[in-house]
């Protein structure tokens, strides 16, 4: 089968399309369901697909409603076809019973300007099956329209085994009840149809392209989809903490830019460090989970390392990692300085407030760029590095450590990790050291257990997430606001 | 006799009143006790919770959106949008209408439905066991009337 690629730039066809040049389309209604054919741009008006003894051939035919009106016609309209001036239209038709005053069939060919030409008509005198074969001589875009009608009675018309000459030229993506626009450009003229433009010629229509003048970029995909998510850590691992989940509180958002091939061009990652309820000097990083990603095509910028214990390659990724690993900062206090009083930063009411720190990282991907799914941003693996000790990582529960983690901590003190079972960073009671909230998290005050700040958290956790999956939202009865850190108003 | 009956009535009336007072005191005591011990098992700390070993602590769920291609003799590629019914976009990218595809997405755990759009075609579909099944076939009533 030969394929035609049509992809004009500036104005005209913006759909990346390939069209089969098979010079006919067959409709035998054997799908058995009208909606399946409507999806392919066939229009049924007071007609349906039905099986049974009245099928002309096979199991199914098109059947009309009762042909009892001369004005209310029962119609089938084909998808747009493109014809080069040769070919025959073939079909079979009949009625099931002859009663009432008169029963008729008219067949028209319609062009893209709305002109209709009668190419066949029949007055029924019996229930014979008629096998029709008509030359179609025009060239260009066309549709065929069958109209069954009559006066009085209960007669129904039947149609089957349609063979349309020419190339299927309808655009099912514009479907509205079977009514589709045609794919322009098959006549070499461009234009028409949906009138879609594609200024950069990347195949993504301008109205769907977030970079309509940049052929290298097409889409922004955000994670989380709206606003920021929050990572909240306890940092005394492998010992249990106080479960206020404010030892390090970081908001995050990823904007992934993809091209028309759904490949990742770049990722813009924004990290907002909001609170440090700790005295330890902790770092933060994350890893993309796909070991198959080629690290040599990735470059990272925007990280903030001050403590000289992280080893990066020239591309900004951490050395010694089998998966792409980014260390955003190595000492949270260098991003969010201690205000001079209190245990940490922004966790104790009445203590000085420090404006959250925003860090912007850029991760570029060179060709051959990976698919969006291969980078797998939403399943990124964030971790805290405790007190500048590189091997001491704290991850989300059941997320694996990086290659640089010191495995001797597993099983120590309160940690109940069992690497052989894929169990990580949980206590014997299955408690975590970190949580990832899909939305921006209002964290507890210093030393306040999370269950006394977010009142549905306990039900959520004990039900394994079944109850109150939205426990972090600010809904009636969900919070004890007195136990949640409030940003001072002045 | 009448006096005796009157005294007896007064006796029963007094006893009834006493009983009512005693019952009220008892009830108040019970209520008071209950109030003092609201949910005696209510956890005071996360460490009091009984957590399943399999709980993943995620506020998100993994959803596979299965796109069933439309078998037409033309391959039109356009943008497929996958979003919440309220319009939070989880994914968008080029998709050929006649290609089968699976998109593995991470969406909020509380989400119950996903909206899939392609050109003029749009469907809001339930998430069932982490799966959303989309096809291009409209859900129109099948009738010849």
Which whole number gives the mean pLDDT of chain A?
Answer: 93
Label the overall shape of chain B.
elongated
Second-tier CATH architecture of the largest domain in chain B: Sandwich
The whole-angstrom Rg of chain B is: 34 Å
Number of strands of chain A: 28
Strand % of chain B is 35-45%
- Beta-strand segment tally of chain B: 7
Largest sheet of chain B: 4 strands, antiparallel
Q: Name the pair of protein chains with the most residues at their interface, and give those residue counts.
A: A-B, 87 and 59 residues
| Structural domains of chain B: how many | 2
Instruction: Give me the oligomer status.
Output: heterodimer
Instruction: Report the CATH topology name of the largest domain in chain B.
Output: Immunoglobulin-like
Q: How is the main sheet of chain A built? A: 7 strands, antiparallel
Output the keywords.
heterodimer; A: 490 residues; mainly beta; Jelly Rolls; 2 domains; seven-stranded antiparallel sheet; 28 strands; 4% helix; elongated; disordered N terminus; B: 145 residues; alpha+beta; Immunoglobulin-like; 1 helix
Helices and strands, with pairings:
The complex is a heterodimer of chains A (490) and B (145).
Chain A: E1 3-6, E2 10-11, E3 16-20, E4 24-27, H1 34-38, E5 43-45, E6 47-51, E7 60-66, E8 74-77, E9 81-84, E10 88-95, E11 102-111, E12 116-123, E13 130-135, E14 139-151, E15 156-165, E16 167-168, E17 197-198, E18 219-223, E19 229-233, E20 248-258, E21 264-275, E22 283-287, E23 298-301, E24 325-329, H2 332-335, E25 357-365, H3 372-375, E26 381-385, E27 393-395, E28 434-437, H4 457-462
Chain B: H1 2-36, E1 60-68, E2 74-83, E3 89-96, E4 101-108, E5 113-118, E6 121-126, E7 131-135
Parallel strand pairs in B: 1-7
Antiparallel strand pairs in B: 1-4, 2-3, 2-5, 5-6
């Amino acid at each position: 089968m030969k394929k035609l690629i049509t992809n004009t730039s500036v104005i005209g066809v913006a759909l990346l399309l390939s069209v089969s040049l098979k010079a006919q389309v067959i409709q035998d209604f054997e799908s058995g369901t009208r909606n399946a054919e409507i999806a392919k741009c066939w229009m049924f008006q007071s007609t349906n697909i039905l099986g049974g003894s009245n099928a002309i051939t096979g199991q199914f035919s098109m059947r009309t409603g009762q042909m009892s009106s001369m004005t209310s016609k029962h119609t089938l309209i084909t998808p747009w076809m493109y014809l080069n001036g040769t070919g025959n239209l073939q079909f079979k038709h009949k009625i099931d019973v002859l009663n009432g005053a008169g029963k008729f069939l008219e067949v028209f060919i319609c062009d893209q300007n709305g002109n209709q030409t009668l190419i066949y008509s029949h007055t029924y005198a019996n229930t014979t099956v008629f096998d029709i074969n008509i030359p179609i001589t025009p060239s260009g875009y066309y549709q065929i329209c069958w109209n069954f009608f009559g006066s009085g009675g209960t007669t129904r018309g039947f149609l089957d085994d349609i063979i349309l000459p020419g190339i299927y030229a309808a655009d099912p993506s514009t479907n509205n009840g079977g009514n589709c626009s045609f794919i322009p450009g098959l006549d070499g003229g461009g234009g028409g149809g949906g009138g879609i433009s594609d200024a950069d010629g990347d195949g993504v229509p301008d109205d769907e392209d977030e970079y309509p003048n940049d052929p290298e970029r097409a889409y922004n995909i955000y994670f989380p989809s709206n606003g920021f998510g929050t990572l909240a850590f306890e940092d005394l691992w492998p010992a249990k903490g106080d479960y206020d989940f404010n030892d390090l509180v970081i908001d995050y958002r990823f904007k992934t830019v993809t091209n028309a091939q759904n490949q990742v061009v770049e990722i813009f990652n924004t990290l907002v460090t909001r609170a440090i309820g700790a005295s330890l000097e902790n770092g933060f990083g994350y890893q993309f989970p796909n070991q198959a990603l080629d690290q040599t095509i990735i470059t990272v910028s925007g990280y903030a390392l001050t403590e000289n214990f992280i080893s990066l390659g020239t591309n900004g990724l951490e050395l010694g990692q089998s998966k792409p690993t980014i260390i955003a900062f190595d000492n949270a206090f260098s991003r969010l300085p201690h205000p001079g009083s209190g245990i940490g930063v922004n966790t104790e009411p009445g203590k000085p407030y420090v404006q959250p720190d925003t860090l912007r990282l850029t991760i570029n991907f060179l060709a051959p760029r990976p698919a969006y799914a291969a980078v797998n941003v939403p399943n990124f693996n964030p971790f805290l590095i405790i007190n500048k000790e590189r091997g001491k990582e704290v991850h989300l529960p059941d997320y694996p450590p990086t290659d640089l983690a010191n495995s001797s901590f597993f099983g120590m003190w309160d940690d109940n990790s069992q690497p052989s079972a894929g169990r990580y960073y949980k206590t014997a009671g299955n408690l975590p050291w970190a949580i990832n909230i899909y939305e921006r998290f209002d964290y507890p005050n210093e030393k306040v257990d999370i269950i006394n700040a977010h009142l549905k958290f306990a039900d959520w956790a004990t039900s394994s997430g079944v109850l109150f999956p939205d426990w972090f939202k600010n809904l009636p009865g969900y919070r004890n606001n007195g136990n949640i850190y409030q940003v001072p108003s002045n | 006799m009448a006096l005796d009956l009157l005294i007896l009535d007064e006796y029963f009336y007094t006893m009834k009143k006493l009983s009512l007072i005693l019952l009220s005191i008892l009830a108040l005591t019970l209520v008071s006790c209950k109030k003092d011990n609201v949910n005696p098992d209510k956890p005071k700390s996360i460490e009091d919770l009984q957590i399943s070993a399999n709980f993943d602590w995620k506020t998100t769920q993994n959803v596979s959106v299965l796109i069933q291609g439309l078998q037409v003799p033309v391959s039109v590629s356009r943008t497929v949008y996958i979003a919440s019914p309220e319009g939070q976009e989880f994914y968008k990218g080029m998709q050929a209408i006649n290609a089968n595809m699976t998109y593995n997405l991470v969406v909020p755990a509380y989400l119950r439905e996903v909206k899939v759009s392609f050109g003029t075609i749009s469907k809001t579909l339930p998430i069932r066991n982490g799966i959303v099944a989309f096809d291009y076939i409209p859900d129109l009533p099948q009738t010849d009337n």
